[in-house]
Design a protein that fits this description.
Elements: H1 4-14, H2 23-39, E1 44-49, H3 50-54, E2 65-73, H4 82-93, E3 99-102, E4 107-113, E5 116-128, E6 135-139, E7 150-153, H5 156-166, H6 169-189, H7 200-210, E8 215-216, E9 223-224, H8 226-239, E10 242-246, E11 251-255, H9 274-297, H10 301-307
Parallel strand pairs: 2-5
Antiparallel strand pairs: 1-2, 3-4, 4-5, 5-6, 6-7, 8-9, 10-11
């Protein structure tokens, strides 16, 4: 059985369009930008970021859509405190909705309906170096200690460009689809709260590192094989775990390091605990087993176990 038709249908069900293709998301973004223009005395520029900018957004299983915007202020990071600058943004959008959170890496505007979260918009506050053009992310909450305040080099725009140029044509389309499949798998098998789940960014960084296009058939009649590409990527991620000694538990545990390929070049999976890493390693094994079982038995049931009820039965 070829599962490509099933996977393409599944992708259409779970995939979210980019900002400029989704009127409701675009409206939410534009209203926040209008409020910033009205309430900020400092000039700023902005850009779409995150999964919507890269075309890898999926409908969340918990209904809370995460929208990311970069706000680039015309300020000198050497003479401005990052908490002060974050405070400008918080003050400008405070009251736009019933809940506006000041977090260390961003200001989050929450939207609710009947008491339930439906959207949250993360505003990452950045300063552009007037000489080098490099961007720096303002880190710090109100009353943060000195060691929790920083202007961190940040090239998320470069990463968005790197993802866009990693592959071309139909290879790029398969690349984005497979990232979406893994994000939905994550949503089905990990809690949405806390850091127990690998972040969407972590899965995207992994795909940027290890994804390879997969096709079947002779070149002039080849068709794309999303099942094979997903299994290959899952196996590549699983192979990349290294054994690390857990001093607290006195045992070896598998741990995955995912280095962001642009500034700040950090490990985007670093905040996951050893126990959470162990669970990720085990769940990847189960995902690989489901993908292999589907292929061997020509059966969609294992794929529904992996990806949830939105995966088509027929």
């Amino acid at each position: 059985m070829s599962f490509q038709r099933h996977l393409m249908h599944f992708y259409e069900v779970i995939h979210l369009n980019r900002f400029d293709e989704n009127a409701e998301l675009r409206q939410k973004r534009d209203r926040i930008l209008e409020r910033l223009r009205a309430n900020l005395s400092t000039p700023f520029d902005w850009f779409n970021q995150g999964s919507y900018a890269m075309g890898t957004g999926v409908k969340p299983t918990d209904g809370d859509y995460d929208i990311d915007i970069g706000i680039v202020l015309d300020v000198d990071h050497q003479t401005h405190d990052p908490v002060t600058v974050n405070g400008w943004i918080h003050k400008a959008v405070d009251g736009h909705t019933a809940s506006v959170e000041w977090r260390r890496p961003c200001i989050t505007v929450n939207y609710q309906q009947s008491g339930e979260p439906i959207y949250h918009v993360d505003l990452a506050i950045l300063a552009k170096d007037r000489h080098s053009g490099q961007l720096r992310l303002a880190l710090g909450k109100e009353n943060s200690a000195a060691d929790q305040r920083a202007w961190q080099l940040d090239d998320r725009k470069g990463f968005i460009s790197a993802v866009a140029s990693r592959f071309s044509g139909e290879d790029a389309a398969q690349f984005r689809r497979v990232i979406c499949y893994l994000k939905r798998w994550k949503g089905e098998h990990f809690a949405s709260e806390g850091r127990a789940a690998p972040s969407g960014l972590s899965l995207t960084v992994a795909a940027h590192s290890w994804f390879q296009p997969a096709t079947t058939g002779p070149y002039h009649q080849r068709t794309y094989d999303d099942l094979g590409a997903t299994e290959s990527l899952a196996r590549a991620i699983h192979r990349s775990f290294a054994q690390t000694w857990d001093h607290g538990q006195n045992r070896w545990v598998p741990r995955l390091s995912l280095k962001f390929p642009n500034a700040p070049y950090d490990d985007v999976a670093e905040r996951m605990t050893n126990q959470q890493m162990l669970e990720l390693h085990q769940r990847l094994e189960k995902l690989i087993a489901c993908l292999e079982e589907a292929r061997v038995k020509n059966d969609v049931a294992p794929l529904r176990r992996a990806f949830g009820k939105d995966f088509p039965e027929k």
